Amino acid sequence: MNPFHGLRRILLFLLLLPVPPASALAQPFPSPVREADSAEARRLAKPVLATRLLDDMESPATWTHFGPGELSFTTDRARDGRQSIRLTSPTKTDKPGPVLGRPFAEAGLRRTFADEDWTGYNRLSVWVYPTLPGFKTVSLLLRFAAEGSERWSYTHGALNFVLLKNGQWNHVVWEIPHLDRRRVRALDFVYRLQGNEPEATNRVCFDLDHLELQRVEADPFVGWQVAPGALAYSHVGYLPQGGKVALASGLSGRQFRLLDAATGRVVLRKPLERVATPVGEFQRLDFSDVVQSGTYVLEAGALRTPPFPITSAVWRDTIAAELNLFYCQRCGTAVPGIHDACHRDWQVAHGDQRIVINGGWHDAGDLSQGFVNTAEATYAMLHLAERLAAAPDPETVRLRDALLREAKWGLDWLHKTRFGHGYRVTWATMDSWTDGIIGTPDDVTVRAQNA
Fold first, then answer.
1. Bridge partners for 225 per DSSP
2. Peptide bond preceding 30 in cis form (omega within 30 of 0)
3. DSSP of 264-281, one letter per residue?
4. What single DSSP character describes residue 254?
5. Is 394 left (phi over 0), alpha (psi -120 to 50) or beta?
6. 91-132 pLDDT tens trace
7. Strands, sheet with 273-277, edge to edge from the N-terminal-most edge strand
8. 377 near 383, Cβ under 8 Å?
9. Radius of gyration of the chain (CA)
10. Mind listing the pLDDT tens digit for each residue in 380-402?
């Protein structure tokens, strides 16, 4: 899935936050990724209940290639057997693709199947070794095709974007219980030609091996019910004077307990409540009576949550995480580990005037730029910073300064990209990396609008 669906959803969150009395920015941006806490790590740790090998990449009989580049087999590396299948492709073509600002093309490997029935399995597993010298972020698209899938859109979940570590084997798993698997026809591995930064390679290579079906206890994928054996609670914590509720489904016991995480002392013991709502029936664990700040653990039967805080500064880490996201989405400047100064050849035109429009924030994983989204996010940051202005403690001062720095980055772009008399860039799709040189085929120029 797209890792950044857009900035607009974040601004409402920032506007509605209660003013925290303290905030800490624990490390410089970009913050390190806690991979052990990721969904990928959790899924890879699941027991595999059954497997079926789909392809060991030893025979070309069922593989085809589409788009630029080529298909080959290589003995350079393999997870099993003597070889793996290889996709090589340029990062761009001689001219942009048919849609302004979108990738040049798609290149891919297609494994075909003869209307196979996969209903006994719910996960795909494959090993991928990308070789993209100079690339800081590497992605690959998996696309599932079965009878009737030609009528699907991306909302049906038949597309799965994965991020890969460069220069090593990556174990990629994709849970597919939501897809109709009765008559499977193809599985595509797709590289989208999105250009390259000037110092990176202009030809990419992906080696794939050991494609198999698996059966696991799949994540719930539809509805509001809490997964069996899980408690739904606020991982970031709760405000002392606010409501404090967790939810469950199917617990066998009648009571729950709230424990002090440091001492193990039982702070509260209450009955589970059963509640019926328009979206289902739930068991509610309501511990709103506890107002003492501290670190706590919920227990219900055999279930136990990790420790979580009750504190008036409950939002501080979340605010810092949101600011880290915006920093990582900065355009036009180097972001360590993500990209160098970028998009110096993307312009907006009004009459005979032109403005280079890098700066601000990439609005999503497709690197687009949006005036309204930038304006709303900038306003939200300034609004929250204003509410923190009178706070004397150093932690809150640091948070306010970080909000103002990021807001200024957005504000500078809003001023930079306007011509006067209401004309400005309103939207520009930037779904590729460019050479930064004006006058080459990867340039995109959008027209200013008065909207």
1. none
2. yes
3. --EEEEEEPEEEEETTEE
4. S
5. alpha
6. 999 988 888 888 999 999 999 999 999 999 999 999 999 999
7. 245-248, 280-286, 273-277
8. no
9. 25
10. 999 999 999 888 888 888 999 99
Report which of 424, 419, 446, 408 is spatially closest to residue 371, judged by C-alpha positions: 424
Per DSSP bridges, beta strands 159-164 and 255-260 are: unpaired
Total residues belonging to the chain: 451
Q: Is the pLDDT of residue 6 over 60?
A: no
136: tokens are 């800081």
Placement of tokens 């060991």 in the chain: 56
Q: Which candidate, 258, 285, 256, places its Cα nearest to that of 273?
A: 285
Q: Scanning the structure block, which residue is given the tokens 């932690």?
A: 395
Query: Torsions phi, psi of 185, nearest 5?
Result: -120, -30
Residue 32 neighbours by CB distance under 10 Å: 7
CA distance 373 to 427: 10
pTM confidence score: 0.90
For residue 283, give Cα distances in angstroms to 220, 227, 300.
18, 12, 11
Rounded CA gap, 167 and 161, in Å?
18
CA 17: distance to chain centroid? Answer: 23
Pairing mode, strands 444-447 and 346-350: parallel
**Rounded to an integer, what distance in angstroms lies between the CA atom of residue 329 and that of residue 309?**
29
Q: For residues 162, 198, 445 and 334, what is the CA-based torsion angle, rounded to 10 degrees?
A: 70
